[in-house]
Write a structure and sequence with these properties.
Elements: E1 21-30, E2 34-36, E3 46-55, E4 58-65, H1 68-71, E5 77-88, E6 91-95, E7 101-104
Parallel strand pairs: 4-6
Antiparallel strand pairs: 1-3, 1-5, 2-3, 3-4, 5-6, 5-7
Length: 142
């Protein structure tokens, strides 16, 4: 059985609401972790941190959760499998999610283009109920 190699994308081609992304990026810096309020019944504190990652085409903010925070440090080259992009307060974010993986890799990225930081650009997100193309059609009433 032959397997099709998973195609890796470059940071410069990222835009909001992409799914199943595979990227190899270098960590530029990791910000401090902070706690976020939880709505779960167990009232467990959750921790989140932001890391600036990139390749030779651009950079973007990667959201790190819980155990991912301590695993990576600046200058690590990581491989993100099945990641996705979102908008947080108009800023583009890269996420790994529950189904995705982030692992250190031996691949080399010499230079990171921090001048093309996609997270610094403001994106305007139009709510679906105001857009011309809605995600579903209303049922006809008889």
């Amino acid at each position: 059985m032959s397997t099709v190699p998973e195609e890796s994308v470059k940071v410069a081609s990222l835009k909001p609401d992409l799914h199943h992304l595979n990227l190899t990026v270098k960590i530029v810096n990791v910000g401090p972790s902070r706690t976020i309020p939880t709505v779960r019944r167990d009232q467990r504190q959750r921790f989140v941190a932001e890391a600036l990652v990139g390749d030779e085409t651009g950079s973007v903010v990667l959201t790190l959760w819980e155990d991912q925070i301590g695993r990576f440090k600046p200058q690590d080259v990581i491989e993100i499998r099945s990641g996705y992009t979102t908008l947080f307060r108009g800023s583009l974010r890269l996420n790994s999610g529950r189904g995705g993986r982030i692992e250190k890799t031996g691949k080399g990225i010499e230079q990171v283009n921090t001048k093309n930081n996609l997270s610094e650009k403001t994106h305007i997100q139009i709510p679906w109920h105001l857009s011309e193309s809605r995600p579903f059609r209303a049922k006809r009433r008889r």
